[in-house]
Amino acid sequence: MNSGIQLIYTVKDIMNKDFLKIKASSRVSMALDNMLNLEKNEMLLVDDNNNLVGVFTKNDLYKLKDEYSTFYEVLEKKIVQKPITITQEKSIIVARNTMVKNNIKRLPILDKDEKVVGLIHLHNLNDEFYKNVEELYTLQDNILENMHEAVCITNSKGVIIYWNKSSEELYGVNRKDILGKKIYDVFPNALITKVLKNPRKITNVNNEPYPGKTVILSAVPIYNSKNKLLAVVSTDRDVTEVISLSKELMKEKKKVEFFESAYKKEIASNYSFSSIIGKSSKVIENISIAKKVAPTSASVLVTGESGTGKEVFAKSIHKASGRTGNFVPINCSAIPENLFESELFGYVGGTFTGSLKEGKIGKFEFANNGTLFLDEIGDMPLSMQAKFLRVLQDGMIYRIGSQKGIKVNCRIVAATNRNLPNMIKEGKFREDLFYRFAVVQIELPPLRERREDIKDFINLFINQVSCQEDIKINSVENSVYNALSAYEWEGNIRELKNVVERMVVLSTDGKVTLDSVPKHIIEDIRDIKEGSSHKYDLNERVKNTEKKIIKEVMKITKGNKKKAAEILRIKRSTLYYKLKQYDFIE
């Protein structure tokens, strides 16, 4: 196919403007001297009105006779043939084909007034150049012809020079019936016409060429290297099917929303919170509250000592909520104050030194339609608390460096081991933010208040570590359960898990024995037992406490008595006395 798009590449772009033009009334001898002096291979002969009448070449010299006075006599003798010409708007492909067809090596170029303005030689269009251009045109045609969009191209005068296959199918007009016509004669309201009058890019304009057909139009001006308008290209995308499908999807969306709502209620009522272990009444009560609040959008505040499983509860609430988004945890105590805002809200590229060029999405956006878990909420800087409150009120976040708001829908679950009411009194935490977080509050008991659950935790962690480390455990002595159940567990469940991991790794022949239990736990249990018979004996309790503290400080100082005495704020002689009293052998 030879499409009109080739007209954009014209002979005007490569024609030679430095040519010899002689009036046919000129004397032959003078013209020949001029031709030879200028080292030209041809002369273009024009009449008195500057119209081209012939082309005289060096090969015509041998045909001349002395009696010829002017070139009019040469023309009368038909020594010079009638010139074959081409207009400057024609493509270079047409120019080459014209020269090959007529067996000529040069081709005069005429303007719209048919005055000669240039000359093009066949050697300017050598085989390599022609091959490259032809491949370029073929590539263009293949691309444009296989586009789903309807493509129309006009020259700067509004004449249609390209009309692809998709255009034929969309508008029912054959290319042979439209090429060469003015666009406004065929389509009076065409977008191309607007661009021709005011050259600027216009995109995504809705149009309905006839009832039931919806098209998105775009048009863009094309310029040459000298910023002169060459053409206008329009692309028309048929979105009728997409619009129809969108309407169907809206209907289905309403159905999905109905079933999704029912699904949330169903999963929330049946979700067993199996990841949470607990037999105590307090834990069972907390699970019941969590199951009820899970399918709602209410914020939840989970409180309790460090290591009591606050994140486990938060994950269970998220899983039971039926929310489709991510569970995104963020530890407020681990983020430097100057990075807090960028972590939560994100930023646009190049906002500050060290920022990523492409920008960064914030945790709020990442948790959209999901759950944002804020651990250690008591460590959130006061400067951020006001901004956070605004997000909870408006449901809108702004990336740093952007004025464009982003709507977010994420459930907030916060957690802390600190006393927020006391922090409010001290002016370290906003009261209004506290009530936003604590719509529903769940307080987790420490492990020492739910000793009946310790054995189940031990078995759970043994199974987890065994699988992870590929260590098979065949038996656990009852004395291990008894010892670990009697310990105080200041670090709660997290501390218990670390101890169990140590016992599994150090086990022998697949057995976990009392020897696997860390010595400090055994000694603390012994101290507790020794003190139990003197429960209300103040001297005995003080003695046990003193013994425990001295032992701990000696461990910290690695037996350095001078340092230990300084830490304990007692004389070194007193420390020696205490060490001897409590049978500490160094």
TrEMBL record:
Alphabetically ordered keywords of this record: ATP-binding, CBS domain, Nucleotide-binding, Transcription, Transcription regulation
InterPro entries (UniProt xref): AAA+_ATPase (IPR003593), AAA_lid_NorR (IPR058031), CBS_dom (IPR000644), CBS_dom_sf (IPR046342), Homeodomain-like_sf (IPR009057), HTH_Fis (IPR002197), P-loop_NTPase (IPR027417), PAS (IPR000014)
Domain (Sigma-54 factor interaction): residue spans on this chain: 276-505
Membrane-spanning residues: none
Keyword flag Calcium: no
Pfam families the UniProt entry points to: AAA_lid_14, CBS, HTH_8, PAS_9, Sigma54_activat
Ranges where the PAS domain occurs: 143-187
Domain CBS: residue ranges: 15-74, 79-135
NCBIfam families: sensory_box, TF_PrdR
Protein name in UniProt: Sigma-54-dependent Fis family transcriptional regulator
